[in-house]
Write a structure and sequence with these properties.
Blueprint (H helix, E strand, L loop, with lengths): L9 H4 L6 E10 L2 E11 L4 E5 L6 H8 L7 E6 L2 E6 L1 H20 L4 H36 L6 H42 L3 H41 L1 E4 L11 H29 L3 H9 L3 H18 L15 H13 L5 E5 L7 H16 L3 E5 L3 H7 L2 E6 L2 E6 L1 H6 L4 H10 L1
Parallel strand pairs: 3-8, 3-9, 6-7, 7-8
Antiparallel strand pairs: 1-2, 1-4, 4-5, 9-10
Amino acid sequence: MQDKTLKTSAASAENKNPIITTRGLVKKFNGKTVLRGIDADIYEGEKVAVIGPSGSGKSTFLRCLNLLEIPTAGTIAFGDEIIYESDYYAQKDKLKELEAKKRVYTSGSDDEQVEKLTEKLETLKNDKKESERLTKELKNHLKLLKATSYRDGAQAEAEETAAKISAAKAETAALTVEIKKAKADIKARKAEVRSSLDASVTASLQAEIDKQRKITAQSRARHKKFIAQMEKTIDSHRRTTGMVFQHFNLFNNLSVLDNITLAPIKTGLEAVKERKKLLKAAARKGDENAKAELLSLPHKLEIIENARKQAYELLDRVGLKDKAGVYPVTLSGGQKQRIAIVRALAMNPKIMLFDEPTSALDPEMVGEVLQVIKKLADDGMTMVIVTHEMGFAREVATRVLFIDEGLIKEDAPPKELFGDPKNERLKEFLSKVL
């Protein structure tokens, strides 16, 4: 299991409360466990690089932080607010294990004699399959011989093959009888084992199952309640968490400017609408402050103008102000990714999440995107970056997490992690990528 007392950077030591906290984060896809219990803290001002081999769970971890993937179990907190918490699936798995344990015990499947008889049965089945295969092969050969009866010696060979077929059939029939007897022996032995079972053990196992069923049912009820609550608050969380994907995800039917301003305008109008509703209710009760604030709320055109102004400023920061009116299809990969970064920044996030932002780019375009991210780092933006760019991680990150097999195997400042790795798997990984 992962060491829960992870090392922290100098930045984390200066901050009592992390921006994002995860504890026991587990994620499964169709029975396959991708994250196996991630414990991590991301502090304000940190630049955390996440490295590791393909398929290790890096991107899944990042997507869970923004709830684009709902974890199977664990806790995620954003500041002091818990945005996800559940152990339902873990409790469900525990119930299945207890039920399986009882089935094995009461069926006698774990009895030594039953195991030996079962092994014998499998051997007999395999022998029968081989005998049937040989019979089929000999029959095909006999057909071929009959089709070429004019060849010298074909008749004698055909008779010999027919005899082999008869012997193979006899062997198959004998094996069928033995298999039937082996199954009967297993059934009899299991019945014998069941008759000698310790009733107190069976009762104890059933009591454990009953207890776990109650725990699982309670956990399921809490899980459903939390999910329903989370669906109402998930948008507000995502507004403070910028996300940049591998493949840009720009709207091709909108101009660059509209791509950037779409979310700020929509959320701005919704915020004003909700605030106006609350203020009107207070004003009807005679609240003079509410009446005054109602008059000062921004109008739609003001919200749009502010969003456009901010978009131009951000585009200027990444050197793409002249591209505001064009459509994404006319841009290079590097330009699209810079626009995607600007779009995320337009929501004024507290933290930026980058999911391999350069993996879909041509080599000559990687530099321009990394330069933008470096500028954000210099400006103090808190960032978590999943990357295969080891040089970039070494230069920009204040802390590096190495994830392998769904666990954080090492967590250290870049100088220490790259210069003096402790974990053997990390040493192996670095030897291949550096």
